[in-house]
Amino acid sequence: MQLAELHFVTSNPGKLREAEAVLGCRLNHRALEIDELQSLDLEHVVRHKAAEALRRLGVAVLVEDTSLELAGLGGFPGPLVRWLLASVGPSGVCRMAGCFGSRAAAARCIALATDGVDEAVGLGVVTGTIVETPRGRHGFGWDSVFAPDGGDGRTYAEMDEAEKNAVSHRRRAFEALREALKDRG
Q1: What percent of the chain is modeled with pLDDT above 70?
Q2: DSSP class of residue 11?
Q3: What is the mean pLDDT of residues 130-153?
Q4: Nearest partner of 173 among 10, 49, 63, judged by Cα
Q5: What is the mean pLDDT of residues 22-37?
Q6: Rounded CA gap, 104 and 43, in Å?
Q7: Backbone CA torsion sign across 148, 154, 160, 162
Q8: Which residue range is the domain that position 66 belongs to?
Q9: Got the DSSP string for 62-117?
Q10: Quick check: 121 and 177 in contact, CB under 8 A?
Q11: Which residues of 93-107 are buried (b: 16+ CB within 10 A; e: fewer)?
């Protein structure tokens, strides 16, 4: 499999922009709505998404998913972060993190490419903290609540696109995926 033959399946234009910036190429793109499996196991969610995209499109696909794992909540919401944001918003995530003795968090992304026979997987993890109140206007999703470790305390949403892409969990996952594809020839 080569990147050029994969169809990146996402309905999120922000994820498409980030993937293309990190990979340094335009991707074939399919904005396909897939019913996501509701599970705390990110790998299980991604594998289900890939199988469903492959079944529906009949072409080699690239999918990814992320999780935001709050240490004080035992890793919750994980891959369910989208639904937590829909119900309590970024401010609610910040308030929840403050109730459990630790604001530590991990941002995790798994990117998976498959043609139905072969597959390549990339994992990216960044540790950080959930800030006390949402900050910043860039990005999407939970970018305004997550400040990666090793930085200057800014959230992803306070960074411009290039700064975020330099340190993000998604970057790490797509770079690992690119290496996995290279290793397969």
Answers
A1: 99
A2: S
A3: 92
A4: 63
A5: 85
A6: 22
A7: negative
A8: 3-183
A9: EEEEEEEEEGGGTTTEETTHHHHHHHHHHHHHHHHHHTTT--EEEEEEEEEEE-SS
A10: yes
A11: bbebbeeeeebebbb
Domain count, the chain: 1
Q: What pLDDT digit, counting tens, does each position of 164-185 carry?
A: 988 999 999 999 999 998 887 6
- Supply the CATH number for residue 162's domain: 3.90.950.10
Place of tokens 């997987």: 121
Tokens 């892409």: give the residue. 165
Token pair, residue 82, equals 């989208």
Residue 129, classed as helix, strand or coil, is strand
* pTM given for the model: 0.92
The residue that leads in pLDDT, 87 or 14, is 87
Tokens 């992803």 belong to residue? 156
- Helix then strand then coil, % of the chain, to nearest 5: 40, 25, 35
Rounded to the nearest 10°, the torsion over CA 181, 3, 15, 61 is: -90
Kindly report the average pLDDT of the chain as a whole number. 92
| Per-residue pLDDT tens over the stretch 58-83 | 999 999 999 999 999 999 999 999 89
Mean pLDDT of the 140-169 span: 92
For 50-79, letters b (16+ CB in 10 Å) and e give bbbbbeeeeebbbbbbbbbbbbbbebbbbb
